[in-house]
Design a protein that fits this description.
Order of helices and strands of chain A: HHHHHHHHHHH
Number of helices of chain A: 11
CATH superfamily of the largest domain in chain B: P-loop containing nucleotide triphosphate hydrolases
Structural class of chain B: alpha/beta
Number of domains of chain B: 3
Number of helices of chain B: 11
Order of helices and strands of chain B: EEEHEEHEHHHEHEHEEHEHEEHEH
Strand content of chain B: 25-35%
Radius of gyration of chain A: 19 Å
Shape of chain A: globular
Helix content of chain A: over 70%
Bound molecules: adenosine-5'-diphosphate, magnesium ion
CATH architecture of the largest domain in chain B: 3-Layer(aba) Sandwich
Number of strands of chain A: 0
CATH topology of the largest domain in chain B: Rossmann fold
Distance between the termini of chain A: 30 Å
Largest sheet of chain B: 6 strands, mixed
Oligomer: heterodimer
Number of domains of chain A: 1
Shape of chain B: globular
Largest sheet of chain A: none
Chain lengths: 256, 301
């Protein structure tokens, strides 16, 4: 990579990280509180009445799902808020007038999403240790699926940020698409416990592959083969990257 | 070499507004160039195209020989821009904004931090380097954008209405600074609708009207074509009609005159004569927009 590109990338990443830490009560604290509530309510109160799944207690079973849920909504939230905010305040122009190529800008924002996703993921995982002791069978899968999911949702968030014309359109996707996908993605249950039709419908939900790949990393088993999860997520990453590159090149939502 | 070479530049916005209708323009390297035009004439659109904020509809643009369709990256490296409206992150610190901008241009942190000191001192913001941008006054914000535009030592600085909203004293300080960097070799292009700014600083200028360049001239030459000025004078004492006529003035009311002045040098004479006749001047200002007059003059030709 050209040295200038590396410096530009570092600058975007530094700016994103500074932002995450500066407004940590908005970026780090909320998911921590929400996920703790999930652990208490679903794990402790309701979970005690649910039978164990494949020999794993319900509380331990939902840990990977809840961590993954926090990772992706944080990565998504970071990129869409930061990018749309930069568009709204117009400081995105600082980057647009510079010689920074599109792919560096995209990479920079995605790295910002990863930083917040991973930070929140680690925090939520640390909290989960107060409630359960999930084992980690394949650490590589835990790391890989955390990164891939952060990347994928950061890319999706960037597209959302590019098209958004106001804050309602930022919130719309999060409320009406992201949240249902998360709840229907098998965070709280094994999709094998669903009726056949719903199992098949679930397979169109990318969250299923993230949660399952991630769960495989923890327990060594999952509803969907981890190799399949990996391929599908990689495929989606390529597609979303191309869409972003295209949107930047055309200047859609960024230039008149 | 030319700093800017524009051929047949066209911009039609979505919705059909034709902001630029085939603009041809050259700005020589080292020039201090003004793009004059009323609101809505297309100045910001033109600058947006040069700096990569607006997609052109047609035509060709070269910046120091780099065609923006071929090597926009190369073209952008030689441009620093000070936009018309504040466009920095309001909650970032002054020095961070400048240093980050250097980063986007691929300049090492250590160099950017060092250079930002000199530039911030020069624009009088060094004491404010740790301040949150939002807390700066309007004039300071404008100077922050100048510092940000200069941090990568561009060969050309483009300023879009740099003195709008800046008070008179600061305006003169800014002019002086711009003259200084121009003397150091930086090409300057600025847009304005104040003729005074052009007279004071610029070497060459173009007038843009409704998306078309209607005049391209040397500033000194242009000024000789200036229509005469009318000044509105308010006097403490009442003035009679005869007295008013003696001054070649139009009487507006008992205390107010409109006086036509052909050359700047006549100003002093008029004031002196009024004072010698025992009048106390309480107000004295140019009436109407000279640029508007100039437009009328040019367009009617
Ligand atoms: N984003 C936009 N969408 C549609 N029309 C625009 C847009 N920006 C500017 N215009 C129109 O283009 C014309 C030129 O505007 P502008 O370049 O801002 O002029 P100036 O900077 O000289 O005041 C105006 O008629 C303006 O209304
Ligand atoms: Mg303008």
């Amino acid at each position: 990579m050209k040295r200038e590109y590396y410096i530009a990338l570092k600058t975007i990443l530094r700016k994103e990280t500074t932002r995450i830490l500066r407004i940590w009560t908005q970026t780090l604290l909320p998911p921590l509180i929400t996920q703790t509530l999930y652990f208490v309510i679903f794990g402790k109160f309701i979970g005690s009445q649910v039978r164990s799944i494949n020999g794993i207690g319900y509380m331990a079973f939902i840990v990977p799902g809840l961590v993954m849920m926090a990772v992706i909504s944080s990565a998504y939230g970071n990129v869409v808020a930061s990018f749309y905010g930069a568009k709204f305040q117009r400081n995105i122009e600082e980057i647009l007038v510079s010689p920074t190529p599109d792919w560096v800008v995209i990479t920079g924002y995605v790295l910002g999403g990863i930083v917040r996703g991973v930070l929140v993921g680690v925090l939520v995982f640390a909290v989960s240790l107060c409630f359960a002791h999930p084992m980690v069978t394949h650490a590589w899968a835990v790391v890989l699926f955390t990164l891939l999911s952060s990347i994928l949702f950061s890319l999706a968030a960037l597209i959302n940020g590019i098209f958004a014309r106001n804050f309602d359109e930022v919130a719309f996707f999060q409320n009406f698409i992201l949240t249902p996908l998360i709840y229907l993605g098998g965070v709280f249950y094994s999709i094998h416990s669903l009726p056949k039709v719903w199992q098949e419908i679930s397979l169109y939900n990318p969250l299923v592959y993230m949660v399952n790949g991630f769960r495989y990393g923890f327990f060594g088993f999952s509803d969907v083969d981890p190799g399949v999860c990996l391929l599908i997520l990689l495929g989606l990453t390529v597609v979303l990257t191309c869409i972003n590159l295209f949107l930047f090149k055309k200047g859609i939502g960024l230039k008149n | 070499m030319n700093a800017i070479e524009i051929k047949n530049l066209v911009k039609t916005y979505k919705g059909g507004v034709k902001a630029l209708k085939g603009v041809d323009l050259c700005v020589a390297q080292g020039d201090f160039f003004a793009l004059l035009g009323a609101n809505g004439a297309g100045k910001t659109t033109l600058i947006g195209i040069l700096t990569g904020l607006v997609n052109k509809t047609g035509g060709q643009v070269k910046i120091f020989g780099n065609d923006i369709d071929v090597d926009f990256e190369g073209a952008k490296k030689s441009i620093g821009v000070v936009p018309q409206e504040f466009n920095f992150h309001m909650f970032e610190r002054v020095q961070d904004i400048v240093v980050n901008q250097a980063g986007y241009f691929g300049i090492d942190d250590s160099i950017a931090v060092r250079d930002s000191e000199g530039i911030l001192k020069r624009v009088g913001l060094w004491e404010k380097r740790r301040a949150i941008a939002r807390t700066l006054s309007g004039g300071m914000k404008r100077r922050l954008m100048i510092a940000r535009g200069l941090i990568h030592h561009p060969r050309m600085l483009i300023l879009d209405e740099p003195t709008a909203g800046v008070d008179v004293e600061l305006r003169h300080g800014m002019w002086e600074y711009l003259r200084h960097i121009n003397a150091q070799g930086t090409t300057i292009l600025l847009t304005t609708h104040y003729l005074e700014e052009v007279e004071q600083m610029c070497r060459n200028c173009a007038i843009i009207k409704e998306g078309e360049i209607v005049l391209l001239d040397n500033v000194r030459h242009l000024l000789t074509r200036m229509p005469q000025d009318t000044y509105r004078v308010t006097l403490k004492e009442r003035i009679s009609l005869e007295k008013a006529q003696a001054f070649n003035a139009v009487k507006v009311d008992d205390h107010t005159l409109d006086i036509e002045i052909k050359k700047r040098e006549e100003l002093n004479e008029v004031i002196l004569r009024l004072a010698q006749s025992g009048f106390v001047i309480t107000d004295f200002h140019p009436k109407g927009n000279r640029l508007e007059k100039l437009f009328l003059e040019i367009v009617s030709k």
